[in-house]
Amino acid sequence: MLIGEEAFDKLKNSKVAIFGLGGVGSFAAEAIARAGIGEIDLFDGDIVDNTNINRQLVALDDTVGKPKVEVMKERISKINKSAKVCSNRVFFDRDTCDSYDFSNYSYVIDAIDTVSSKLLMIKKAFDAGVPIISSMGTANKLNPCDLEVCDVYETENCPLARVMRRELRKMKIDNLKVVFSKEKPKFTPNLCDENGKRINSSISFVPPVAGFILASEVVKDIINKKEV
Fold it and tell me: For 166-177, what is the mean pLDDT?
């Protein structure tokens, strides 16, 4: 009723890959499933941990210890039985990246935290001519209203985006659609691990909003794509 039959058919005939099923990616996966995307490939090497319960859709008392991709696949099957969902319990890195053909995808959603893996994913998507949207950092943020969609080179107040800009310049990639928060990060003084590294923290309502924005951009771009 909202987008029309032709647009809905585009979604139904599209295939989207989602890398990372944490606080951002799990909500993005749910949103595109509910929007009617016909094929969804899920990628995440982690199992659900009890520390995920404050912000991740897949994290419940009875899912702790289970692979995130399997929990998400089962959830999507209860939303849309006709959707084709492939679960890949894998960490996307140099050892695994060549196992997947990005040209099969209508869109790629990057919702992982590891910079090296993000860069590999972006390069593969660009080489395949497939649109990709990346989530920047949502940790240490409290205001979901400060989330925006822009090019990575227009971001501010995001430590992850700063690193990504530097590395993408080295790769001569001059544009990347991202979701980021313009809010200045909030850090807890003296909150460090045993190695002295600062510990990031997250709240229940910022990463999910980023995930929904990722999904909305994917759905809108697929709907508005002109047929060749």
Answer: 97
